[in-house]
Design a protein that fits this description.
Mean pLDDT: 97
Shape: globular
Distance between the termini: 20 Å
Strand content: 15-25%
Structural class: alpha/beta
Radius of gyration: 16 Å
Number of strands: 9
Helix content: 25-40%
Bound molecules: 5-O-phosphono-beta-D-ribofuranosylamine
Length: 208
């Protein structure tokens, strides 16, 4: 069983896709053992509670400085004993000590086809605003392993989504979520739990 901690900050629709996938059996051998949010008002925490999953808030506001928050976050992750950490809309700079402790065991879902529209400042609607401003015809989502950079770790899976004339950042975000994020993140967890994913030489590999 792949014990998984999911870190969230907002609506939790990607978390919900994982919860539903586990319930429907499309995600096998995965147990979400804890949901952690930096935002005490995150709908994602309610979704966790509704699913009977341990839900914890670790807010920077509750700590004197960033290092104390970083240590608290690491502690709350470690005490859940995960095999994998999933960042699902987690709008927090991941502490280096967490990345070192869970090397190649943290994955993130990003709402673009990395390396487009990623890195510092590209999150949430800003990603889709940039895609529309550039006029790309195709965008999508990426699941990647987290390293010490921003959206720079080994790419595990991507799924393309067409941009339609008349799209707004909101309509595009929704389509990318529905057609890409909520599809590839569950698929990646199922693959990792099946032992089919390895990371070597900075690249992620999926065994047939
Ligand atoms: C998603 O668009 C995801 O790609 C990005 O943050 C958003 C989280 O949405 N990282 P939700 O909280 O999963 O609904």
């Amino acid at each position: 069983m792949l014990k998984t901690v999911v870190c969230v900050s907002g609506g939790g629709t990607n978390l919900q896709a994982l919860i539903d996938g586990i319930g429907q059996g499309t995600i096998r051998n995965v147990q979400i053992v804890r949901v952690i949010s930096n935002n005490r008002n995150a709908r994602a925490l309610e979704r966790a509670g509704e699913a009977g999953i341990d839900a914890v808030c670790v807010s920077p506001r509750d700590y004197g400085d960033r290092e104390q928050f970083n240590e608290a976050l690491l502690h709350r992750v470690e005490e859940a004993g995960p095999d994998l950490v999933v960042l699902a809309g987690f709008l927090v700079v991941i502490p280096p000590q967490l990345i070192r402790r869970y090397e190649n065991r943290i994955i993130n879902i990003h709402p673009s086809l990395i390396p487009s529209f990623c890195g510092k400042g590209y999150y949430g609607l800003k990603v889709h605003e940039a895609a529309l401003a550039r006029g790309v015809r195709v965008t999508g989502a990426t699941v990647h392993f987290v390293d010490e950079g921003t959206d720079t770790g080994p790419i595990l899976m991507q799924k393309a989504v067409a941009v339609r004339d008349g799209d707004t950042p909101e309509t595009l975000q929704r389509r990318v979520m529905e057609e890409a994020e909520w599809v590839i993140l569950p698929q990646c967890l199922d693959l990792i739990a099946a032992g089919r994913v390895t990371v070597a030489d900075g690249k992620a590999h999926i065994a047939e």
